[in-house]
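3-hydroxyacyl-CoA dehydrogenase family protein
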Amino acid sequence: MAEVTRVAVVGAGAMGSQIAMLAALAGCETTVVDIDEQRIDAALAKVRESVARSIERGRLDAEQVEAALSRLSSSTDLASAVEDADFVIEAIVEDLDAKRALFAQLGAFAPANAILATNSSSIVSSRLADVPSPGRVCNMHFFNPALVMQLVEVVGGTHTSQATVDSAVRLAERMGKTPVVVKQEVFGFIANRIVGAIFDEAIALLEAGVATAEEIDTAVTKGLGHPVGPFALLDMTGIDVNVGIKKLEAQETQDASRGPSQTLLDLEAAGRLGKKSGRGFYEYGAR
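Structure:
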């Protein structure tokens, strides 16, 4: 199994830009790709701020960061950005049609032996593997913020080769992460499946009038030792994001009961989307 030396990350959002920085820190020549040059510039500026803080706190070495930044480039031309990549990581919007369209392009533009990974937390790679040599397609799910969070879930479907899984695991380890191999394509994989169950139970308790959102969050943080309670976490990730995930869960599992709760739907309809809108389960001030 050849060592990965050239990585392309498609999507310059918060996740994509941080994954690209991780690849550069791991010694790979890395290109972050997006259709919007201003988005790339803004995302990479935030990444530089993040690594500067890590240097100040002694988590990263200044020379190491400088060398990594010299290996990090950007492009708005997908074809040229992936034409010599060993490993491509997709980190665009969580939309099946958009991802399928992108993977069709990657199948045409990237080398035939390049691994094609999706960072999706909910769309399994078998839905994206209609490309030449589907054995090279997998999920490589990083957690937000990718520069900080330790876990990477590597998921292979029945189409995925063992060599692809092994290569994704090795790259995650080079990035300083702890990879976990998920052996079956299940909705939510491991971590999000567990936290999703916590969200569902917390909302059920709230809707039944057992306790307030604040009391449930306090029970989870003080009693179970979680750093953040479920309702605060829902506000952090975005109510609309969670509604979308629950709708996708119901669709993918063909189980309508796993769709979004009425509480989430009501909050979304009211524009109470969490921290980003200033109100969700909690109030955060005007945005």
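The chain has two domains: 6-182, 191-277.
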